[in-house]
Design brief:
This protein has 18 helices and twelve strands. By secondary structure, it is α/β, with parallel strands linked by helices. The protein folds into three domains: about 100 residues, no CATH class; about 180 residues, Rossmann fold; about 55 residues, Orthogonal Bundle (Arc Repressor Mutant, subunit A). Strands 1-2-6-5-4-3-7-8-9 form a nine-stranded mixed β-sheet, sandwiched between helices. Strands 10-12-11 form a three-stranded antiparallel β-sheet. α13 links the parallel β8 and β9. The two termini are about 40 Å apart. It comes from Desulfacinum infernum DSM 9756. This is DNA protecting protein DprA. Belongs to the DprA/Smf family.
């Protein structure tokens, strides 16, 4: 369970988290030196001087018991929203995350981490992804979600959002790691996606409430994304991007790194191609990931769930109920590769107006998606 009352220990954790100038690594050094958050809070100025690397601002704030805001105010704001905190050493602290060198001592959460989150994969990539990159990501994460894999990402526009959407679409679980406070809606276009994740998954942040999404927060966020996961998949990314930072952190944490190949010489492909040259595992489907992570998890999951997922993945066939013969002819033409409406008309021997009406109907049923330029793909 998350902490349900403001006892001495919870108060001490929040005091440390709200201390100006005190980051995760400094907090870990303090805990190692004094043994508990309560002991850190009780420590005097002379004792604090013995801790290496502690910023002057943090030493003064701890000595004077000065926090960014009153602990009671932070606690009440969490309680009012039904949120909580999970702290290092708590029973519900994520198992994967506690194994990294610098785990966040305090996690703000909208719900509870679950045991099944042990089998988690991070999927990250460009904020300015291509339509095909977004489609691939949604399908990949839907396939992972159907197999019981928790999908972790960073809630940014582009690939991150597609990863969360794919997992939710399949009824799977997803964790969004924020680079701001839990109460800060960022990016704003993701407001509805945020609501769905709160209902069906988990929002996580190491930052106090009200913290804005500053640029320096995102590398810190990235270590949590990789730390929660058994491996990191990079779909589309430039050669210098936050996604490659996440991949590097994954390697440092002993996680698997995967990459999805793209078009040669395209700037969105340069990041994944660089990772592939450095030994990342190539990903063309969910099976490529499942084969790698299977030995890391219990045998009963690794074999039976993969088999069940493969059996159920065939998708919708031509016998989909409530579809006319014309609907089925259009589905037979479409695949994951974009197909222009003119070609659909030719191959199905249908008029343009009738074809567009049928495609709209299929899109409403969630079977196809329209791309810019009157191209369509099958989902």
């Amino acid at each position: 369970m998350t902490r349900t009352e403001l006892d001495e220990t919870t108060r001490a954790w929040l005091t440390l988290r709200l201390t100006p100038g005190l980051g995760a690594r400094s907090m870990l050094r303090l805990l190692e030196r004094f043994g508990s958050p309560e002991a850190v809070v009780r420590a005097g100025g002379r004792d604090l001087e013995t801790v290496p690397g502690l910023r002057r601002e943090a030493k003064e704030a701890l000595s004077r018991k000065r926090t960014l805001r009153p602990v009671e105010e932070e606690w009440e704001a969490l309680r009012r929203r039904g949120w909580g905190i999970v702290c290092l050493g708590d029973e519900d602290y994520p198992e994967n995350l506690k194994a990294i060198p610098d785990p966040p001592p305090v996690l703000y959460v909208t719900g509870l981490p679950e045991p099944k989150d042990l089998v988690a994969v991070a999927v990250v990539g460009s904020r300015f992804a291509s339509p095909m990159g977004l489609l691939f990501t949604e399908k990949l994460c839907a396939d992972l979600g159907r197999r019981g894999v928790t999908v972790v990402s960073g809630f940014a526009m582009g690939i991150d959002s597609a990863a969360h959407r794919g997992a939710l679409k399949a009824g799977g679980r997803t964790i969004a790691v924020l680079g701001c406070g839990l109460d800060v809606v960022y990016p704003k276009p993701n407001r509805d996606l945020r609501r769905r994740i709160v209902e069906k998954g988990l929002l996580v942040s190491e930052f106090p409430l009200g913290t804005p999404p500053l640029a320096g927060h995102f590398p810190m966020r990235n270590r949590i994304i990789s730390g929660l996961s058994l491996g990191v998949v990079v779909v589309e990314a430039a050669d210098r991007s936050g996604s490659l930072i996440t991949a590097r952190l994954a390697l440092e944490q002993g996680r698997e790194v995967f990459a999805v190949p793209g078009l040669a010489r395209h700037f969105r492909s340069s990041g994944p191609h660089r990772l592939l040259r450095q030994g990342a595992k190539l990903v063309e489907s969910a099976e490529d990931i499942l084969e790698e992570i299977a030995p890391m998890v219990r045998p009963s999951w690794s074999m039976s769930d993969v088999a069940a997922g493969a059996a159920g993945e065939g998708g919708r066939d031509d016998g989909e109920p409530n579809l006319s013969e014309e609907h089925q002819r259009i589905l037979a033409v479409l695949s994951e590769e974009p197909c222009h409406v003119d070609r659909i008309c030719r191959e199905c021997s249908l008029g343009a107006a009738q074809t567009m009406a049928l495609l709209l109907d299929l899109e409403m049923k969630g079977l196809v998606r329209q791309l810019p330029g009157k191209y369509f793909v099958r989902l």
